[in-house]
Amino acid sequence: MKPPLLDGTGIGKRFGGLRVLTDVGFTVGEGEIVALIGPNGAGKTTLFNLISGLLRPETGTIRIGDLPITALPPHRICRLGVGRTFQTPRPFLDLSVAENVRMAALFGRRPGPVLEELLELVELAGDMGLTARHLPVARRKLLELAMALALRPRIMLLDEILGGLTPTEVGRVTAILRRVRDEWGIALFWIDHVMWALMEVAERVIVLHHGELIAEGRPGSVARDPRVLEAYLGQPTGS
């Protein structure tokens, strides 16, 4: 059986006396779209920080294919094919859109698509000469997506890429993400609170609550799971 593209087993993390993740496991297959959901404080971004090497777990192992990456620094993990976007976009504000993407491409693991192709994909081709600080938040998020794609990743960690967007903008971004997977073959591991979009696009959903995995499966079955409803509603279902 072919190993998953990305997987973690027994992941545990604490900050001082606060346990943030407890015995968490996950898998993401080649070209798969997996949503990671849970209430605020569930440990979702902490898990992404562990995968991308910004933090180290106390317990457990994270692998790309059959290669353990738990002890590797962020730049090594990136070169192995893990791209990342953040809740707050982090482009180089005094560089143009085109210069930001070119800068990211220099760090790519292999020659990638031409600049125009990337900017066309994220609908920023008309803004390539604009300084990044002059972009509104929705377009900064698309710029950061283009920068991550310029690295030629095998998997993208998307952290609330839809946060703060209007319904129209959400529709445009989810259409772009479908193309990233369908046309480029890049797997997506995706945190967001825009549940209707996640449930439409994701093929599988993983749910964290208080740092523990409480449900996993197809979007429809997860949405009906009593443990998930209780976590989001804050009270036992049926009460």
List the helices and strands and how they pair.
Blueprint: E1 6-15, E2 18-28, E3 33-37, H1 44-51, E4 59-64, E5 67-68, H2 74-79, E6 82-84, H3 97-105, H4 115-121, H5 137-149, E7 155-159, H6 167-184, E8 187-191, H7 195-201, E9 204-209, E10 212-217, H8 219-223, H9 226-233
Helix pairs in contact: 3-5
* Estimated radius of gyration: 18 Å
Number of self-contained structural domains: 2
- State the shape: globular
- Return residue spans where pLDDT drops below 50 for at least 5 consecutive residues: none
CATH class of the largest domain: Alpha Beta
Structural class: alpha/beta
Order of helices and strands, N to C? EEEHEEHEHHHEHEHEEHH
Overall pLDDT confidence: 92
Main β-sheet description: 6 strands, mixed
CATH topology of the largest domain: Rossmann fold
Rounded to the nearest angstrom, the distance between the terminal CA atoms is: 44 Å
In total, how many beta strands? 10
How many helices does DSSP assign? 9
Going by CATH, the homologous superfamily of the largest domain would be P-loop containing nucleotide triphosphate hydrolases
Q: State the strand order across the main sheet.
A: 6-7-8-3-9-10
Percent of residues in β-strands: 15-25%
Helix content range of the residues, please?
Answer: 25-40%
Per CATH, which architecture of the largest domain? 3-Layer(aba) Sandwich
